[in-house]
Amino acid sequence: KLQMMAVDYNLTKTWETFDRMLALTDKIESAIRYADYGYAAWGSKEKINEKELDQVYEFDAVLIDDIGAINDVVEEFQDEMNQGKFDEAWNYTYRMWTIMQRLEEKWNQREGYMKGYQE
Questions:
Q1: Which of 14, 76, 79, 100 could make an SS bond with 93 (beta carbons 3.0 to 4.6 A apart)?
Q2: Total domain count for the chain?
Q3: Closest CA to 107 of 74, 69, 67
Q4: Closest by alpha carbon to 21, among 105, 88, 95?
Q5: What one-character DSSP code corresponds to residue 9?
Q6: pLDDT digit string (tens) for 20-32?
Q7: Angle between helices 50-82 and 89-118 (to 10 degrees)
Q8: Which domain holds residue 75?
């Protein structure tokens, strides 16, 4: 909805960053959705080390925090747009983009940890 609003209100400064952010969002969403298919070691009947499981939970908690942060920015941005306040549109778009970059970095760290666990 925000992207449509940015286009409808001709907020051209936001378009490129918005497109990048949405492409990154799609990439991360796909990685998260299909991640468990590659974790063969987690499906085995071997006992999982609690310390390692705690590490995965820590990764997940941080990811959930970032998802909450992006939702907060989206809600703020949408409120501003609904009130006809467009001056900060690029800043909101950039904030969403930087949170998504941080989320990708943390996801990649988690993936690296999981791949190391399987070896």
A1: 14
A2: 1
A3: 67
A4: 95
A5: T
A6: 999 999 999 988 8
A7: 170
A8: 2-118
Tell me the mean pLDDT in the region 3-23.
Answer: 86
Q: Distance between alpha carbon 48 and the CA centroid of its chain, in Å?
A: 27
Helix (H, G, I), strand (E, B) or coil at 106: helix
CA angle 13, 22, 16 (to 5 degrees): 25
Residue-level pLDDT at 100: 94
Query: Between vectors from CA 90 to CA 85 and to CA 96, what angle results, nearest 5°?
Result: 110
Quick check: pTM over 0.90?
no
Full DSSP string of 40-99: GGGGSSSPPPHHHHHHHHHHHHHHHHHHHHHHHHHHHHHHHHHTT--TTHHHHHHHHHHH
Structure tokens at 93: 């778009």
Q: How far apart are CA 83 and CA 73, in angstroms?
A: 15
Residue 85 amino acid letter: K
